[in-house]
Amino acid sequence: MSGHSKWAGIKHKKAIVDAKRSQTFTRVTREVTIAAREGGPDPTSNFRLRLAVQKAREANMPADKISGAIDRGAGAGKGDALDEVRYEGYGPAGVAVMVDAVTDNRNRTAPSIRHIFAKNGGNLAEANSVGWMFSRKGVLSLDAGKLDPDEVGLAAIEAGAEDIKVEGSSVEITTEPNSLEPVRSAVEALGVRIEEAEITMQPGQTVPVPEEQVPQMLRLLEALEEDDDVQAVYANFDVPAEVLERVSASV
């Protein structure tokens, strides 16, 4: 798996900590609200909302909270107006970083993001300065368990997957966004449990980061992700998995 994909897996494991649960609830609530606002309140016809609701359920969000978020997005509930904003910049070693945020106050969010970049060896750049390096993709991460990972990958390819990466029993499947759901269904039909399914931004090219700069780069990414207004962070770094595992334990 790519360095960034491996880091996503590490983050997923660390996110189980209860202290971060309220932040997770906030993020999935915002995503459900915005998805309902953009595409309507019916998950069967609104793929973004369907994916957001699935994530909310995986985070163990109560059903009434999910319904309330959908109602707010559809205009039936009250709440602050939320805007989606994307920030772009560079981190240590010239790593391209994209930050997706949801905010009710851009005058609060922009200075906060700028400060985080500056404090951690990076700099905020102009809009579209790094966005061209990334493509919107669907990504599924799973453990094949007792099944042959190659057979799982073949089933995914037949269902429309673009690319398969296998590392031991771990499989990462890349699709076009509109193929994520049929590929997911095909893989689940084999009895495989999906660990993560998301629409993300994947880099077309990566930047190798010297090991001595990896801690600073990870601190930048974690600081961005911990900002209350940030929904997701993407970066195009390339770091060996064993280095990420070792360094992340001390960051």
UniProtKB/TrEMBL annotation:
UniProtKB keywords: Cytoplasm, DNA-binding, Transcription, Transcription regulation
Localisation per UniProt entry: Cytoplasm
Coiled-coil portions: none
Record-level Gene Ontology MF annotations: DNA binding
Domain TACO1/YebC-like second and third residue range list: 83-237
Keyword Acetylation: no
Record Pfam families: TACO1_YebC_N, Transcrip_reg
This protein's GO CC annotations: cytosol
GO biological process annotation, one example: regulation of DNA-templated transcription
UniProt cross-references to InterPro entries, sorted A to Z: Integrase-like_N, TACO1_YebC-like_2nd/3rd_dom, TACO1_YebC_N, Transcrip_reg_TACO1-like, Transcrip_reg_TACO1-like_dom3, YebC-like
Span of domain TACO1/YebC-like N-terminal: 5-75
Family: Belongs to the TACO1 family.
Protein name per Swiss-Prot or TrEMBL: Probable transcriptional regulatory protein JF888_10380
Species of origin: Candidatus Dormiibacter inghamiae
